[in-house]
């Protein structure tokens, strides 16, 4: 299995991804596998006649007299299904069948990829479930998911796995079935490194993550329809996320909002089945905030009580240089041992954890929460331990009453224009990035600080750091910044993150994530709340936690980061951070 947090470069770039009356068009061969497990290639027709190619893995001994549950699997963006000898041997040895399928526009399936459009990809998943329902060797569900009306005892027992695009098909497929039927045949899901709102992931606050959009478009360009071609090309070249206001350019913002749980939630729908979310906290495409939204908004109250989020370092994880970040691929939060308190050491891996989750649901012996022990389990940035938390929103105010003016020259440089409520320290250094912090060049310009000093070394792309708190302390969850914003200039963009270091010169962005504030037009004193990237980090003694403000971010290079010169004034800044006792 290759769906864990340490993905290869190609899988790292992979966003991994049918109706009633679907017909099997015929197997193309049966191949003996380990222990007399079998593998068969099959093609079915989806609702519109599109061919969906699948490989069915049947464990030894599975029959109508001794049926087994089915696990659906699918691939990342621009990928294809798994159809090799020996694949899924662990799952079959543990008594599960597996169906791996090529999503529309991928591999040997037909059609074009519409990027998890419920009316296309969502209905394809329904067609796959229809096929599974006709297999007599697949076990029937006990109805424990609680979403099925009476009389649906013949529904198959079905689970699902896959990462990125292969995580999105699970959520979109289940939601589409709920929208069309009022229930879903899935008994439980285990999506990894996937999205709640695809549009917000690709362009948070309308600021295009051009590094990712360019990479994903380059991988999948032959698979997509014309409206995606035009929208992606426009976003990459201009830094503007198409929202329907540009003649001839489709509204990608609105369309992609509907290609994930966000659109269904807006319709008033929620999932009522247990879900084990795996998410990369240092994933800078689909960050921890996306899993948080999925858990808190996409699930019913009852489903949340049976579900959990397990976060590790990794996923779609590109390194940060501007500003510098920290990156590793450690996972201390995937295990078969239940957690307790606020810390637990874990070791066995997410693939094993999700299989134990399916076994618990299959045997009516528990769910994700019983297995993991808390709503959220977050691997710290250094990978050293796992934080076990019930909420990511228990925030403490670490800075307040601060006024800060920043000047953006339009070329990636950000300087402090003025500050009050903190010591204003502008550090002059030589060229290069990051600049060296030289205390002897510091000039204090204000007295009496609720927050610590604000500092910036000069040089292209260098950030401003506002001191929040000295270690030792632990942060785990979703920080938030609020301020009254005045923006002078058109399309001003400023990026925020938490950083840790011994000084501003050594500070590194925690788990490589930044989120922007964008003001398309001039504003005066407008109240703004900025959701900061979710993090889990230990700040040791001798190091400091900073709010980092930057004009640039690697994930949004070129037009995505910097537009025009201007000044942004933040008045009455408050920074609220979830501290862990």
Kindly describe this structure:
- The chain has 13 helices and 26 strands.
- The model is unreliable at 1-33, 336-347 and 424-450 (pLDDT under 50).
- The strands form five sheets. A seven-stranded mixed beta sheet has the order 1-2-3-5-4-6-7, with helices on both faces. Strands 15, 16, 17, 20, 21, 22 and 25 form a seven-stranded mixed beta sheet that branches. The protein has a five-stranded mixed beta sheet with strand order 8-9-11-12-10, with helices on both faces.
- The two termini are 36 Å apart.
- It has 581 residues and is α+β, with helices and mostly antiparallel strands.
- The chain has three domains: 9-196 and 261-322, Rossmann fold; 198-259, no CATH class; 395-578, Jelly Rolls (Sandwich).
Offer a concise description of the structure.
It is built from 13 helices and 26 strands.
